[in-house]
Specification:
The complex is a heterodimer of chains A (about 80) and B (about 150). Chain A is an all-alpha fold and about 80 residues long. Helix content of chain A is about 65%, strand content about 0%. The two termini of chain B are about 15 Å apart. The chains are: A mainly alpha (about 80), B mainly alpha (about 150). At the A-B interface, helix 2 of A face helix 3 and helix 7 of B.
């Protein structure tokens, strides 16, 4: 069987596996934090620090939610 | 010392320009750092979405088969509302996307999410930049502060 060569932007990125796909949460969280804090902050010099804080908060919140849901599934199933 | 606004433009013009090219509304207000940061971040997020899922993740409604109901056609592909908000890059991708091979599975979901979130962030920036254009002094006061 012959597979066509991967063409960037035309074919989906050949990334498989749960961990690799989970890693895609990082860029979207980072972008969200940067844009949100760039809009909210009075001065741009405060953006890197505040964006880093909110980035950590989003990730922490998602990890906590995942842990709670995993525990709930384990208890119920 | 205050920076000078390059030129004054109505809020509607700032909104349209910022929608079309993310971050450009802030550039028109003289807020270069804010405009470049927001614009580049939105564009990178959108391009990353296209890279992950392929350009077909941007899939606009087919208006040639409207059956007389515009709203229904749009609601059949609600993600395009977000993608449309990212401006020129969303329009161009929506024009090219449907002619390319379809994306699939998780990569399609992630790519769609990235592109739609980029558009929604651009909507936030559009509202903010047009609001700032109505203010007497839309500039950041950091120029008066120390390092």
């Amino acid at each position: 069987m012959i597979f066509p060569a991967y063409t960037p932007f035309i074919q989906p990125l050949p990334v498989w596996g749960h961990l690799a796909q989970l890693a895609w949460v990082l860029p979207i969280c980072a972008a969200l934090s940067i844009v949100y804090k760039s809009i909210r902050c009075h001065t741009m010099s405060r953006v890197p620090r505040e964006a880093a804080v909110i980035f950590a908060m989003i990730l922490g919140g998602m990890i906590f939610a995942a842990a709670v849901l995993a525990l709930l599934v384990k208890l119920l199933v | 010392m205050q920076k000078r606004r390059p030129f004054k433009a109505p809020a509607l013009v700032i909104a349209i320009v910022n929608w079309f090219i993310p971050g450009s509304g802030y550039l028109m207000l003289g807020q270069v750092a804010r405009g470049l940061t927001i614009g580049l971040t939105i564009l990178i997020l959108f391009v990353l979405g296209l890279l992950i899922g392929g350009i077909h993740v941007v899939d606009p409604p087919d208006f040639s088969v409207l059956h007389g109901n515009l709203v229904r056609s749009i609601l059949e592909k609600p993600w395009y509302i977000g993608q449309f908000m990212s401006g020129a890059i969303g329009l161009i991708s929506g024009w090219i996307g449907p002619t390319q091979p379809p994306s699939h599975a998780r990569a399609n979901d992630i790519g769609t999410l990235y592109t739609a979130v980029a558009g929604m962030l651009n909507l936030l920036a559009t509202i903010d930049s047009s609001y700032r254009s109505t203010l007497e002094d839309p500039y950041e006061p950091s120029t008066a502060e120390g390092p």
